[in-house]
UniProtKB/TrEMBL annotation:
Allows the formation of correctly charged Asn-tRNA(Asn) or Gln-tRNA(Gln) through the transamidation of misacylated Asp-tRNA(Asn) or Glu-tRNA(Gln) in organisms which lack either or both of asparaginyl-tRNA or glutaminyl-tRNA synthetases. The reaction takes place in the presence of glutamine and ATP through an activated phospho-Asp-tRNA(Asn) or phospho-Glu-tRNA(Gln). Pfam families: GatC. It comes from Corynebacterium pseudopelargi. This is Aspartyl/glutamyl-tRNA(Asn/Gln) amidotransferase subunit C. Heterotrimer of A, B and C subunits.
Length: 99
């Protein structure tokens, strides 16, 4: 027995402002019914005690400690730049931009 009727599909199509032919209404009703059946089958699986997972394989992620380290100063970062303007990297103009 179908869980979704052709009339329900027609109602949903109207709400979504879709113009569906009679053949499309029948086809979509059958497809949606199949999807609902598949979801119902999955819900029947005994999953008590199974831990939810986001990936089918166990993944160990290596995390490092958040440690404050010495970083480059502005002068050190700009020391190797080909061009500097007002303590910033100067790059060629692109896409015909105006100053």
């Amino acid at each position: 027995m179908p869980e979704i009727t052709r009339d329900e599909v027609a109602h949903l199509a109207k709400l979504a402002r879709l113009a569906l032919s009679d053949e499309e209404l029948d086809q979509f009703a059958e497809q949606i019914d199949g999807i609902i059946g598949n979801v119902s089958d999955v819900q029947k699986v005994a999953a008590e005690g199974v831990e939810p997972m986001s990936h089918p394989h166990s993944i160990d992620t290596a995390m490092r400690e958040d440690v404050v380290e010495q970083i480059l100063t502005q002068e050190q970062a700009l020391s190797q730049a080909p061009k500097v303007d007002q303590h910033r990297f100067e790059v060629p103009q692109i896409l015909g931009e105006q100053d």
